[in-house]
Amino acid sequence: MSEVLVVVEATTEFGVKKVTLEMLTLARELGTPSAVVLGGAGAAEALAGKLGEYGAEKIYAAEGEEIDGYLVAPKATVVADLVKRVQPTAVLLASSQEGKEIAARLAVKLDNGILTDVVALAADGTATQVAFAGSTIVKSKVTRGLPLVTVRPNSVNPTPAAATPTVEQLTVTVTDSDKLAKVVDRVAEQKGSRPELTEAGVVVSGGRGVGNADNFKLVEELADLLGGAVGASRAAVDSGFYPHQFQVGQTGKTVSPQLYIALGISGAIQHRAGMQTSKTIVAVNKDGEAPIFELADFGVVGDLFKVVPQAAEEIRKRK
Amino acid sequence: MNIVVLVKQVPDSGADRNLRTDDNTVDRGSANNVINEMDEYAIEEALKIKEAHGGEVTILTMGPDRATESIRKALSMGPDKAVHVVDDALHGSCAVATSKVLAAALGQLNADLVLCGSESTDGRVQVMPHMLAERLGVAALTGARKLTVDGTTLTVERQTEEGYEVVTASTPAIVSVWDTINEPRYPSFKGIMAAKKKPVQTLSLADLGVAANEVGFDGATSTVVEHSKRPPRSGGVKVTDEGSGGTQLVEFLATEKFV
């Protein structure tokens, strides 16, 4: 079977991201998965174990300052060269900002179609996408070139299938025009131990109803009890209750966890756009007419400052 | 500084949006069409740069005739003029073809800086800045929450999952912005009146030297096979808290095996 290239997403803190394992799982249905690691020196070695565990038969590594010191252009050049050489069946990237951007450049370099936010990919290349805030399901196909798709986190259940990957170091030859956007500083912000928002199996979000920044501790407490990530509605972010990188919705992150709990969120389209495809939705809101209840599998009409502490206490009791 | 702002007209995200049943494109006929919200932040940023450094702000839109409404709305915020790429053959264009057309238009506008929103609220694909950068051979600085202009040097602060990055490039460059970068102004009455008289140049594919078979359905690199509305969620339980709402919530989580 021919190769399927999986462009690896990883973080220095947590290693291989879950979406990468989902892509490897998906790639095994389509051919032989080869992982492409693009990062700083030594990146591939650190990730090889995990990538092999999920079935990567081969790892292509492009490492160093030439790759890591700029925005995506050098990465796209490396992947484009690799695609031309190995002629893969498909190229999978994560539907993150970086994954979409590498894919964008690949599409132009290879004059190839591109499909983003893909949640399923059939062997014949037909991709399933969700559009318009999760209200529409679209089946699409690339009609020029190979299937170049970005996969949305939490679309596939990652399953291990051990392989022992060989590692091939790629010679990196990037041009000056790939080095126009230079990263001069990377500032890590305090993360704590919570899972990354788009990858988390459980997300607990707070909205305007949380009232102030201090009260978000209540949202965090419930998230921590459930091993989840914390999100916030745009109203809560705009009011300064919680930082923007945790915003869920049209102009923030799109999440699709197993469980989404909305606290004090009315459920405007702005918010629904980012969470509507969650598997199970729970809502607590004092307004029984709030649109969030149209989505909720379980809704509590009540004061979140009474309901949430009681729920937290009950979870502790059951542990 | 010569600044071009990319503005897309999109169906209002607050209303019901659909794909057409005849050709699978976005249904713009039955929708209330508005400026892509994120683009308003790009316009605001362009106006602020012009106010600080001088220059000219041009709106560039590719879209059908009715996109004129959005162009006038954009001009009412303060830009100097607009270019509208309009051609019947463009209907059905994919992102790759769209980037070809916009790159050709930008090639005629000699921009030092191209600003756009980080994504459109209809497709949310986020690919355009890098597609254009690839075609034009210029830098793309995406997802800016802060932009500083110092002569020909641009410095952008962008949110990442682990924190933030500071990225620099020289002009000419493309910068896409998130809604955290500024607070867009409302058009004044004077601005609205002035917008009616501002020049809007229309360009066809022939004007841009792009062949009709490179765009639209003929030139598309991907196709929609089928689409359907996702069934609305239903069957949910709603309880009113009468002192045990929290416990009931956890009981539900337990039956679903989350606790």
Label this structure with key terms.
heterodimer; A: 319 residues; alpha/beta; B: 259 residues; nine-stranded mixed sheet; two-stranded antiparallel ribbon; 8 helices; 13 strands; globular
Short description:
The complex is a heterodimer of chains A (319) and B (259). Chain A is of the alpha/beta class and 319 residues long. Chain A has 10 helices and 17 strands.
What does this structure look like?
The complex is a heterodimer of chains A (319) and B (259). Chain A is α/β, with parallel strands linked by helices. Chain A has helices at residues 18-30, 43-53, 65-68, 73-86, 97-110, 216-225, 234-238, 269-272, 292-295, 304-318; strands at residues 3-7, 10-11, 15-16, 32-39, 58-63, 90-94, 115-121, 127-131, 136-142, 148-151, 166-169, 182-188, 202-206, 229-232, 259-263, 280-285, 298-301. In chain A, the strands form 3 sheets. In chain A, strands 9-8-7-10-6-1-4-5-11 form a 9-stranded mixed sheet, sandwiched between helices. In chain A, strands 14-13-15-16-17 form a 5-stranded parallel sheet. In chain A, a hairpin with a 4-residue loop joins strand 8 (127-131) and strand 9. With 259 residues, chain B is an alpha/beta fold. In chain B, strand 4 (56-62), helix 2 (68-76) and strand 5 form a beta-alpha-beta unit. Chain B is globular, with a radius of gyration of 22 Å. Chain B has a 9-stranded mixed sheet with strand order 9-8-7-10-6-1-4-5-11, with helices on both faces. In chain B, strands 2-3 form a two-stranded antiparallel ribbon. Chains A and B meet through helix 5, strand 7, strand 9, strand 12 and strand 16 of A and helix 3, helix 4, strand 7, strand 8 and strand 9 of B. Strand 9 (136-142) of chain A pairs antiparallel with strand 12 (222-229) of chain B, so a sheet runs across the interface.
